[in-house]
Structure formats: C-alpha cells, structure tokens
Amino acid sequence: MTGGVLTVLFGDPFAAMNTVGLVAFALVGASKAVREEFDLFGVAVVGLAMAFAGGVTRDLLVARVPLALRSPVEILLGLVGVALAVGLSARLASPDEHPLTVAADAVGLAAFATTGAIVATDAGVSAFGVVAVATINAVGGGALADVLLDRPPFILFEDFYASCAVLGGVAYWLVGTLGAPSGVAAAACAAVTVGVRLLAVAYGWRLPTATQLTERLGGKS
Amino acid sequence: MTGGVLTVLFGDPFAAMNTVGLVAFALVGASKAVREEFDLFGVAVVGLAMAFAGGVTRDLLVARVPLALRSPVEILLGLVGVALAVGLSARLASPDEHPLTVAADAVGLAAFATTGAIVATDAGVSAFGVVAVATINAVGGGALADVLLDRPPFILFEDFYASCAVLGGVAYWLVGTLGAPSGVAAAACAAVTVGVRLLAVAYGWRLPTATQLTERLGGKS
Amino acid sequence: MTGGVLTVLFGDPFAAMNTVGLVAFALVGASKAVREEFDLFGVAVVGLAMAFAGGVTRDLLVARVPLALRSPVEILLGLVGVALAVGLSARLASPDEHPLTVAADAVGLAAFATTGAIVATDAGVSAFGVVAVATINAVGGGALADVLLDRPPFILFEDFYASCAVLGGVAYWLVGTLGAPSGVAAAACAAVTVGVRLLAVAYGWRLPTATQLTERLGGKS
Question: Which residue ranges does the record assign to the Glycine transporter domain (chains A, B, C) (predicted)?
C-alpha cells in the first residue's frame, strides 16, 4: 500500500474495483435523489449512503473499523460521483433511468461484489460467508438508498439484481478454490456479476415465485 | 465443541437453542414471503434474514465476527427452514397464519432470547446489556423481515411480543445471578419466553397506552 | 473515571454531554411515541431507541462494545427521559411539538454530535470520519425513532437538521486541529450545533434543491 495515489488506486484488484464502485454508486444514488427533488444536502447524503453503506456493513461484519472512515481518498471519490450526478441532472431529463446510470449501476454492483468477496476471503470466513458478504457489499448501499428515498427496499428482490452478486460471489469462491490467484478470481467475479446483470436488464429476466414453482411441479394446493 | 455433528448441535444449550431458532425463524420468515408472492430468491432472502439478522446483530454488539459467516452448518439450517416453508405452501392456504407457524415463531423467539442472553453473559456486559441483547437477538430478525415485506416493524410493539423476550432475558439474569448453572438459566429463559408468548396469543394480552395509564392514575389532561 | 457518580457524569466533557443527550433524546423519542398512542412498552422502546441508537452505531463504527451495554448508568438516564415524557404527556396536549421538546431535541443533537466527535477522534479516524461519526451519532437515534413510528426517516434531510451536526463536527475538527484542548473543541462543537439548529428553526432555513441550484447558475435543461 506504499507508493503514489495511482498505486493506491490501481495497484491491486481491491483498490481498482473499489474506486470504480464508489464513483458509480455515488452517481446512481445521487441521480435518484435529484429525481426526487431532494435538497443538495439530501442528494449528497443519498449518494454517499449508496456508495458507502455496503462497504461499511462489510467491514463491520468482519470486525474492522470501516475503510470509509480511515481513508480520506474514499470520501473524495464519493463526492466526485455526487458532483457528476448534479452536473448530469442539468443536461438529462430523468438521470436515474438513463442508460449511463443503468450501466454505472451494473458496474458498481460488480465492483462491490468483488471487493466484498476479497475482504471476506481475507477475513477467513466460510464459503457461505464469502457469498453473503459479497452480496451485502453489492446491494446494501442500494437498499439503504431506497429506504432514504422512501421506496420499498425489496425492489432488490423483484428484479434479477442481488442474484447477480450471489452468482459473482460463487464465481469468486469457485475460481479461488480451484487454485487461481486472487486477481483472476476477482476478474471472474466482476465479469459474471456485470454480465448477468446486463443480460437480465436486456432480456427482462425474472425468477419464478413459490406459487409458480409448485404449479409447475404439479403440487397445486 | 469436539465430536460429531450431534454433539455440536445438542451438546450444549447454546447450540441446541440456536438450531431450533434458526429453522423456526427461517420457516416463519419464508412463509410470510410466500404469502406476499415474492419470487424464490426473495423467499429465501426473507427467510434467511429473519433467521440470521438477530444473531448477526448480537455478534456485532459484542464485537465478534458473526457466527453465521463462520459456521457452514448455520446456513444449511436456515435453508432447511426455507424449504419447509415452500413445501408447506403447496399444502396450506395461508402458511403464515397457521398454528404451526405461530408455534414455530414462539419457539424461535424463546430460542433466540436464550442464545442472546448466553452470548451477552459470556461477553461480560451489564445486566441491562444481557436483557437488551437477548431481546434484540429474539426480535431483530422479525423486525428486518417486516421491513423487507414493506410492513411497519413496530408491529412488534403492538402485540405482547418483544416483552416476552424481555421477561425471558430478566429470568436468565435472575437465575444466573442466584448461582444456578448456565443450563438452568437457559431453560428458565426459554420456558418464560415461550410460555408468556403462547399465553399472550391465547388470551390476547395487551399493554396499556400512556393515555390509558394516566387516565387510570387520575392524571387526566 | 474514578470517583463518585458526579465525577463520572460531569468530570469530563464526554460524560457531561452524553448525560444531557441521553435524557433529552429519550424524552423526545418517548414524546413522539406517546403522541402516536403506542403502549407503554412501545413508548419506552422508541425513547430508548432514540437515546441509544446513535451511540451504539458510533461504538460499532469504531469497533468497540457499545457503552450502552457496558454501563448500568446509561440505561437509567434513558429511563429518566422516558418517565419525563410520560409525566409531561398528562399535562401537555401535544408533547412532541412543545417548545420544551424542540429545545431538548436541539440540545440532544448538539450533545451527541460532540460525543461522536470525541469518540471518533480517540479512535484515530480521518477528518471525514470525525464529521461522519459526529453526524451519525447525532441523527441516528432520531432516524431509527422515525422508522419505528412509521414515518419516513429522510425528514432529517428536508429540514436544516443533520446539517447542524455536520457543521458541529467540522467545528470540532477545526478547533482541535488548531491545537486547542479537547474541552474547547467540545464546547465549540456543541455551541455551533445547537446555535445553528435553533436559528434554523426560528428562521425556517432550507437548503436549495439541485434543480433550484442549476436554475440559479443558469444551467437550465
């Protein structure tokens, strides 16, 4: 972790992914708050909440002081995303539904699933723990943003959204267990998460409900 | 903690109670999500959230990495409860109001109040801390499940529900302070919690509001 | 921390501020719950949640067992605030909008911003971390109380409310960085927070929305 800012940001897969995720999620969260006509403080809070809530929860789960409170670089990256959202809001009619925002959201999801898996593996938790921390890191910020925006957070469960992070976490664990180095596992996790997410958006994928499943299996009540 | 799985599960009061609580709460949470027509991923998430949220909060409060992330057995128990709920949903019209679900909920409440009291006592917190951690462990999962289901979580406070866990935590602390071994205190906590809860359901017990109390005491405004 | 109860409570800025904040926030939270006709258990839970949620979150963020669980004095102070609210509810028509409650809320906000800044500084976090922990400590309890009362928590962002704690946290960090002793920084933080809050209430201050800002800057879309 020595060397210049560029080394800190891009010298290892964790830092690179973390940088991308922070800017992307701050942009998405702030865009949603702009749409809801929050004041500037509210826009910044929702953007920073979306960027940091997942990572803070991740760090609490593995019992360490959150990186967001220790690193002065982190908050600057979040504010860059907020500033981008405010700037874009002057140009775009509905910034939170723009393809750019949807793409940034998918990239943030993949980046945070990966950083969650890396931190959980370092902390020595079980295979389930790796997948759980990857998923919580990826979707925790969006869930809190929805709560702050007074939307139901389970919108996460209606779409094929959190499932992408689950699959990414499984990919990280599988590739790592097969003996690949950390960077390869991180790349696999990010590729699976962002790929499945973009396919799910493009083709409108849905998971079946319990009623639909039991009907298909012939177990009608 | 050596020996086979049976010893791990039933060799000490903590493990036995924890097993019962995990299956019961995963069953209750998943049943509620089935009722709301969540997709299968959502059903699993609400079930696992109800089973694990209390215990994760408990472990965070006493500053240790959550057991749910360290033990691979824990997640399997939660998935057993989710599978039971999906299976029952094919047979029962409203699984979340069935007497079986109400009983499972009372048993889970008692089991988690007890495990919360045990962990808090081990962590050396104050008497209030023991009761608080027991209550949070017992009702935290249900509160999160209600939030995910977009119901107000304070439904916990309208019924005689969290109060049962408070009384169970007080019983654990009283019996332990009188010098009884941990197993006796655990049995007292579980018996008080589940007993008071079932009596409250059977007789429709309610606590008075502040207005009612001041009227009874003659302090009308 | 040796000596009698008075020394514990008033011997250092942290303990004095913490005492004031606990009683004030328990009073405010319980008053809101009385207004909503919660039962007595619910009134106590909302009051204690408002008093303790911020401090518990603060302690979790700096990775220590929450003070509320370790100190038996803390819970008594919270119960004093709850009892005050119940007593006042017999005399006042709408206790949660009474000037006394608004003043208590401003004092609690200032007290908890200060204790948050002190704990964060002791934990050695970054300047952003000091401001973030001060703000979360100050507004976390009120946000949880609103959730329990089924009100949207972002009411915090519509008023000039959390902003006061942000300014207080900045004042603490600035005064401390200039070399002043901890007591002076604490006094500056408390004075800025309570002063800005009371001025904001008196003059109805609001922050601009992003739309208003871009209109003023001539960046109409």
Answer: 17-88, 103-175
